[in-house]
Amino acid sequence: MALLLLLPVLSGCLRVQMTMGVSKSDLVSGHLVVATVPEDGNDEGPQLTPPKSLENKMRVQPYRQDGFVGSDVYFTDLTFSEVRGIGGLSPENSTDFSLNFGRSGDLVSFNGRADLAEVPEGSDIELRINFPVRPSSTDGLRNSSTGVSWRLAPGEVSTMYAQVSYPDPDTRGLGSWIALVTVLAVVAAGLIGLLAWRGRDTSPLP
């Protein structure tokens, strides 16, 4: 699963703060702030609009804090494939910020890359991810037992990495189904055995 998030490159300082929480059901919730220092009183900063396919899972509200203005986007229960729709929020005049989640069996890996060569100095760009379990490895800063963050430097190309292991939700459902079938098979076999025993020939031998 690949996410291409586009960050606006403007003359003023930029603030991008993204927080994501990944559940054991592989659903992602969180929020994204994209804001800049206004050039004048009429400047509302970057205005983001959810893609139509995710309008029922995203909410955008104005952001105005610490001298920055822009958009604050909240998203709920996005699947790994739907997360890529966050890229559809971005305005024009942008730079590449790519995030990639991948699952192989019970192993979930995260890789990110941000080309911030054109982002002005003094910008504040941070990504935080809270995983359902402790990451086995990461190049980010561990904020808690399950949380990792990356603070990205303007004017550079940065990479991000983390890896966690927890059961695939699809296989968990399959396992429950197999267990149910097994129980039903044992019960059926028991009933057949009981009926055979009760129907046995009990007449005395000649």
Key descriptive features of the protein:
alpha+beta; 7-stranded mixed beta sheet; 206 residues; single chain; 5-stranded antiparallel beta sheet; elongated; 12 strands; 17% helix; 2 domains
Q: What would you note in describing this structure?
A:
The protein has 206 residues and is an alpha+beta fold. The protein has 2 domains: 2-165, no CATH class; 168-200. Helices cover 17% and strands 45% of the residues. It has 2 helices and 12 strands; from the N terminus they run βββββαβββββββα.
- Walk across the major sheet and give the strand order: 4-5-3-2-8-11-10
Number of DSSP strand runs = 12
Averaged pLDDT, please? 82
Shape label: elongated
Q: Which structural category fits the helices and strands?
A: alpha+beta
Enumerate how many helices there are, as a single number: 2
Helix content: 10-25%
Q: Using the CA coordinates, give the radius of gyration.
A: 26 Å
Unreliable segments of 5+ consecutive residues: 174-178
State the end-to-end CA separation.
77 Å
- Estimate the strand proportion: 35-45%
H-E string? EEEEEHEEEEEEEH
How many domains? The number is 2
Biggest beta sheet summary: 7 strands, mixed
Topology, please?
Blueprint lengths: L1 E7 L5 E9 L4 E10 L21 E8 L2 E12 H4 L10 E11 L2 E9 L8 E7 L6 E2 L2 E2 L4 E6 L4 E9 L3 H30 L8
Parallel strand pairs: 2-8
Antiparallel strand pairs: 1-6, 2-3, 3-5, 4-5, 6-7, 7-12, 8-11, 9-12, 10-11
